[in-house]
Amino acid sequence: MKKNTKLIFFVNLLLLTTFISNCVQYTDESFPANKNKELEEVISLGIKVYEANCIKCHKAELKGAENWKTNRDEDGHRLAPPLNGYGHSWHHSPEQIFNTIRYGLVYFDPNYEGKMNANDKLTDEEIWAVIEYMYSIWPEDVQSKYDEMYLSD
Question: Is the pTM of this model over 0.90?
Fold first, then answer.
């Protein structure tokens, strides 16, 4: 399962970076910087998508709603958790995070009634870019744990 998770994550990331790299022409002299530039472009897209679609609930800098663990909104729903590595998002595989964004929390619980609903207006590339943005914000120790859990053999 971990190998499939890693493979799916990297195949999608490869498709995204291939798409982006085909949009920009590089010279041989700039090649060593390509990977960093591509990653910066993916993260930049992730920031834009997050700010347009996620920030209202998950707040600036992916900090989540205040008192998200204990408080509920006016309808009795749980508040949005942080996505910055200090909540529980990093405990989920790349596919689980993707599916949560794409299909909402009904992905985990078919009886879920809340505000994290399916999001069919985002492309797969946009969702993966948001995930890459989230990952880029996580503290180094969280990134290391995540890599060990989901991205290593």
Answer: no
